[in-house]
Each structure stands twice: as C-alpha cells, then as structure tokens.
UniProtKB/TrEMBL annotation:
Pfam families registered for this protein in UniProt: PK_Tyr_Ser-Thr (PF07714)
Similarity section: Belongs to the protein kinase superfamily.
Protein kinase domain ranges (all copies): 72-332
Top-level division of the source organism's lineage: Eukaryota
Entry protein name: Protein kinase domain-containing protein
Length: 400
C-alpha cells in the first residue's frame, strides 16, 4: 500500500516540492477538473487555452505570519478546535487571513499527520464552497494560512443564542452550497477527497453567507480503483459517524454523505449533533423523520417563518443520508439507483428535483435495525471529538 502521507519532519520539504510540481486547474469548474484528471485536457483543449497553473498557495516565513497576527495576540484568537488554534491576521496588502497553528509537541505524530492531510487535500482544491488555502509555514511550528471568514463557522452562527436566529433561506442556501462543495471534493477535483469531519463548526461562511468547507485535518485521498479504505484509529465527531465507519473503520464517500445528513438536521433543528445531556441529534430526530413530523423538527426559533415545502424536502434528503446501510444512502455525485432516471443525487434533490417516494423505499431485506447503540454518548466525557482504536485492520482495500 502506498503511504498517503509522510510521517517524519524531514519529509516536509519533499512533500512541499512534490505538491508544488502537481498542477491543479485554474478554474473552479468541477467538469474542468475531472477532464484534467482523465487526461482529456490535452486532447480536447483548443491550442490557445491557458496552460495549467501551479498551486496558488505558497510558503510563508515565520516573520510574515507573526507580523500578520500581531505576534499571535490573544485578541486575534478566533477559534480553537480539537487540535489547533486559529488567529486572525492581515497581510501587508490588506488581505485578511486565518492562521491555523497545529497544536501538540513537535514530536506529535498526529500534529504532522493533520498538517500534511490538510495541505495535501485542500491544497489541491479550488471551489467557491471550499475554504481557500493561501499557504503554509513550517518555521518553528506548523501553520496553515487561509482566507479569513469574518462570519466564522455555521455552528457559531446557528447556535449563538445571543443573536437572532439564522433565517430559513440562509439555512437552505448553506445546505445547497455545502452539497456543491462536497460534490466537488468527491468527484470534481483531481482525486477523490473524503473529508471525514463534515459538521457545522467545519463549514465557514463568507460575508454573503456562502458556505465553505474547511478543516481537512482528517481528510483522505481515495484512489479511483479503491472502493473504500479501512482506517484506524477511528476519529471524527460523535453523533456524525456513519455506522460502517464507527464499527469497521470503513471510509468512502458515503461516510461524508452520512455526516452531511446530520449537518442538514443541524440546519433544520438548530440543535447540536450531541447536546449538553449527551443525547444525540440522530436519536432525537429519527422518530420524527419516520413519522413525517417535520414541524416538530424545525428550529422553534424560526416560528412560522420557514418554507414548509422546502423544509420537508431538506428533511427528506437528511433522512436518506443518515440511513444505516451505506448502499441505500444517496450519493453526492451520481445516481446510485439502477433502473431509475437519475434521481439519486443529493444536490438534485435539494435543488428541487422530483421526489418519488417509491424510488427510495428500501427492500425489506435491506432494512436493518437502526444502530441505536452508538447514537447517544453514555460516558461522562463532555468532549465530542474522539479518537479510538478501530476494531478492524488499518489496511486499504481494493476493488476487484
Ligand atoms: N478561515 C477561517 N476564518 C475564520 N475562522 C476560522 C477559519 N478557520 C478556522 N476558523 C475558526 O477556528 C475553528 C477551528 O478551526 P478548524 O480548522 O476547524 O480546526 P480544528 O482542526 O482544530 O478543528 C473553526 O471552528 C472556526 O471557528
Ligand atoms: Mg474543526
């Protein structure tokens, strides 16, 4: 098996060099990217087409990022995740940036792995719904530099009790934009990228409320000939993990589809994936979805101010995405249903495609007991991010 990331610090230079020799396309168009991957670019592009550009990100010196963040001033600290601190900064040309400092000791393998995962995945991505990487810095510590989001994450906006509730139109727009970003990661960019930690605090908002997927610390490449990977340890966010990932460490696009379903529920309900009393959003929402009680699902802070038809549609897509059998979840990118006319795509459904209930009915044989046992957090630990050894092997599996 080919390693997808390098472990030793001395490998950074090699990694940076190898990445900067690859050539992502210049436009954010998913079809353009896919053509480049398939090698169609050279055959079909007219002679006058501009040559493919090298990645637009660059290496920053420590002095540059220290100056930009005012010496990592406490007042510039805008976010703290499970493994990082994020500071607001400003470049000499006035551009606002977010500087993400990877936490942990310099010998910490996870720190390097997260850094390389993020650099090696989002460094290739160019899409309006994916947070743009501007560069990195490996002087003294490990830093990633991104465009700054003044609005912060969807979680910060959605769950902030002190601000007016986020309106329905914004929530629906965030659902559709995030689906576009995921579709691009799964199909549109150079190689299949599985994010593995889709959730509201990892989706940032632009000034005009466009969502941008961020935090690629757990992301994985998936070679095109592989059906999935089996990964250990299992990491991610409790309440957002697909059953096949939680139990066997199996990761593929459907891992993200499941988490996207939970994200849709977050948007509809305004609830967190796991609440203060350790009850999961999934276990609370499932019976309401099953009984079609959409009004009971919708965030009470919205009152009557939401489009019932749209809410039903988003809830319907969420219910499909959180299905226990991965094969019966829709795909972000293509129809999974044989003998139907292509109505299997998440984005299509969210954007108003015809919903035919009969197409989505699972055959009796495929209906499995919902995995209730992992929905609610039963221990005393408040921490929602976790990391546990996988019960399965860590080897990757190829399709035949
Ligand atoms: N580009 C950005 N602009 C503004 N805030 C950001 C940006 N990137 C991250 N943040 C803030 O920092 C938090 C942690 O960042 P994240 O990349 O998710 O780190 P972690 O891997 O530690 O979870 C986010 O939830 C968000 O609030
Ligand atoms: Mg995060």
């Amino acid at each position: 098996m080919k390693p997808l990331y390098l472990r030793s610090s001395s490998s950074f230079k090699r990694l940076l060099l190898s990445i900067s020799h690859r050539s992502p396309p210049t436009t954010p168009s998913p079809t353009h990217d896919a053509a480049a991957v398939a090698g169609e670019e050279e055959e079909e592009a007219p002679p006058e087409s501009p040559p493919l550009k090298k990645p637009t990100w660059r290496c920053f010196s420590y002095d540059e990022i220290e100056r930009a963040t005012g010496g990592f001033r406490e007042t510039n600290l805008v976010g703290r995740g499970g493994s990082s601190e994020v500071y607001r900064g400003e470049l000499p040309d006035g551009r606002a940036v977010a500087v993400k400092r990877l936490m942990g000791s310099s010998a910490c393998e996870r720190r390097e792995r997260d850094f390389l995962a993020e650099l090696g995945t989002v460094g290739h991505a160019r899409h309006p719904n994916v947070c743009a990487l501007l560069g990195c810095c490996v002087d003294r510590d490990l830093y990633l530099v991104f465009d700054f989001s003044h609005r912060g994450s969807v979680a910060a906006n959605l769950h902030d009790e002190g601000s007016p509730a986020m309106g329905w139109a914004a929530r629906r727009g965030i659902a559709v934009g995030t689906a576009r970003g995921l579709e691009y990661l799964h199909k549109g960019c150079q190689r299949r990228i599985i994010h593995r930690d889709i959730k509201a605090s990892n989706v940032l908002l632009t000034d005009d409320l466009q969502p941008q997927i961020s935090d690629f610390g757990l992301a994985k490449w998936l070679p095109s000939e592989w059906t999935h990977r089996a990964i250990a340890p299992i990491e991610g966010t409790f309440g957002c993990l697909a059953p096949e990932y939680y139990t066997h460490g199996i990761v593929d696009e459907k891992t993200d589809v499941f988490a996207f379903g939970v994200f849709l529920l977050e948007l509809i309900t305004g609830r967190k994936p796991v609440d203060g009393s350790h009850r999961s959003l999934l276990s609370w929402a499932r019976p309401l979805l099953a009984d079609g009680k959409i009004d009971a699902l919708v965030d009470p802070r919205l009152g009557e101010s939401y489009d019932g038809e749209e809410a039903r549609r988003v809830a319907f897509v969420a219910a499909l995405c959180i299905r226990a059998p991965a094969t019966w979840r829709p795909s972000m990118t293509e129809s999974v249903w044989i003998n139907t006319d292509g109505a299997g795509q998440v984005l299509e459904l969210l954007e108003g495609g015809e919903i035919r209930q009969d197409q989505w009915a699972m055959p009796e044989a495929d209906v499995v007991e919902e995995p209730w046992w992992f929905d609610d957090l039963e221990d005393e630990d408040e921490e929602e991010e976790f990391n546990t050894p996988s019960p399965s092997s860590s080897s990757s599996t190829t399709s035949n």
